[in-house]
Design goal:
Elements lengths: L1 E4 L9 H5 L4 E4 L2 E4 L11 H9 L5 E4 L8
Antiparallel strand pairs: 1-4, 2-3
Length: 70
């Protein structure tokens, strides 16, 4: 899946960097995707949680695999 952060929406809570530090960083007061980490294999649970818990809803995930049904 492709991961991005919309700087226009981000207000700098750093939740993403806290929840998925291998993918997100905190630079100049904003969350950013680390260089080379714009794409992840499959649905990384830490990245999914970071997107879900982002208070400004600034994280976009595209090409997300369908959720598994029990």
């Amino acid at each position: 899946m492709r991961v991005s952060v919309d700087r226009e929406l981000c207000y700098g809570s750093a939740e993403c960097a806290h929840r998925a530090p291998e993918v997100f960083d905190f630079v100049d007061g904003y969350g950013v995707v680390r260089p080379g980490r714009e794409r992840t294999e499959g649905a990384d649970p830490d990245v999914l949680e970071a997107a879900e818990k982002c208070p400004s809803q600034a994280i976009a995930l595209t090409g997300t695999p369908p959720q598994e049904h029990p």
